[in-house]
Amino acid sequence: MQTQLNKHDMSSIKATIPHYTDVFNLTNTSRPSETDFRADIKETMVKYVTFLRKNDAPFFLSMFPIHYVNNNSLDFDFAFMDNRSSHKVNDGNATYTNAFEFLYDSCHWALAKANATSVKIVIGAIGWPTDSYPGANVANAERFYKTFLPFIASGKGTPMRPNQTINVFLNNLSDENRLFLDLGSFQRHWGIYKFNGEPKYRIDFSGKGRDLYPSTAKGVIFMPNRWCVFNGNLDDPGKVEYMKSLACSESDCSSLDLGGSCENLTYVEKVSYAFNRYFQTKGQASQTSDDKCHMGGLGKVVPNDPSNGKCEFPVEILSAENVIEGATFGASGSSRDRVHGRMSLSAGLLALTVLWMIL
């Protein structure tokens, strides 16, 4: 791709590929200066970064401090940049007190060993999930961004690259309920915003560290306040489990997983959660000919919110197609009085609206 861009006098456009921190030998290192590309892919990576160097293209690095700290059984506070961690790494004249600077400089060391010190690093994705993983919650996400964004805005750089501007892309504007789960269920919960355009936590995109919520989207329309739950019939446990699994295969039940906000529900409540996710995903279809809450005779529609503590049973936002067709569902109540559903076409448009408001 870069070769073709160069041929057509468009060399100012740079082609690059994002990489995760698993391209490095981090499992065998304790200091950034020991970092190199993994032995099994080093030859390929050296060729790649050499090409980047010759074309003045950046190396896009995705990193997730929460995942790195948990996977390596480090002090959890090392994932944050507020200097509360008891874990410190001394590397020559440099001292590392947080995972971001540690990983960023580790990448620089790997590039240096590949004779590519001039290649600029861009953080292609960094963020904090709010569900379905140990430590993934709203409070920790807010804590992470509270110091991370002012650090980036300061231009102070890292021990290996002091006084250097770091370009960063945040992951993610809103949750993605269809994202692949190769790393874990938490991948569907990176969103800074809920699906209705309401921010999950306080975050100051300017990097000034102000204690405020970003703009909230307006005019979001929800489906009626009704939920599909398990009727409690356990006469055939195998059938119940089959219908629960079927419901989750067609919807997002990641909040039921380890570390999730719905992990501690009873089995009956977990079945209800699965049934409701399916029901909402299918647009609350409950006509006689297309009853998405039938669930083999195990489901029933209820008017009262079955949410339990931190576990929300979401109500779907109205899809764009239904809005265009003149559906009569209202948007009663404020955004904070409603629960939230999956990403639909209208949510996609909403995300663009939110982005416009932020900018």
What do you see in this structure?
With 359 residues, the protein is of the alpha/beta class. The protein has 2 domains: 2-189, Glycosidases (TIM Barrel, Alpha-Beta Barrel), CATH 3.20.20.80; 227-314, no CATH class. Helix content is 29%, strand content 9%. The protein has helices at 2-7, 42-54, 65-71, 99-113, 138-154, 237-249, 267-281, 320-324, 345-358; strands at 18-20, 59-62, 89-91, 94-96, 121-126, 168-170, 227-230, 286-287, 290-291, 299-302. The strands form 4 sheets. A 4-stranded parallel β-sheet has the order 1-2-5-6, with helices on one face. Strands 3-4 form a two-stranded antiparallel ribbon. A hairpin with a 2-residue loop joins β3 and β4. α6 crosses α7. The radius of gyration is 23 Å and the shape is elongated.
Question: What's the gist of this structure?
Answer:
The protein has 359 residues and is of the alpha/beta class. The chain folds into two domains: 2-189, TIM Barrel, CATH 3.20.20.80; 227-314, no CATH class.
Based on CA atoms alone, the radius of gyration comes out at 23 Å
Question: How do the strands of the widest beta sheet line up side by side?
Answer: 1-2-5-6
For the record, give the distance between the C-alpha atoms at the N and C termini, rounded to a whole number.
30 Å
Average pLDDT: 86
Q: What global shape is seen?
A: elongated
Give the class from helix and strand content and strand pairing.
alpha/beta
Report the sheet with the most strands, covering strand number, pairing sense and barrel closure.
4 strands, parallel
CATH superfamily of the largest domain: Glycosidases
Percent range for helical residues? Answer: 25-40%
Number of strands: 10
Low-confidence stretches: 323-359
Following the backbone from N to C, one meets helices and strands in this order, namely HEHEHEEHEHEEHHEEEHH
The CATH topology assignment of the largest domain is TIM Barrel
- Helical region count? 9
Structural domains: how many: 2
What is the CATH class name of the largest domain?
Alpha Beta
CATH architecture designation of the largest domain: Alpha-Beta Barrel
Percent of residues in β-strands: 5-15%
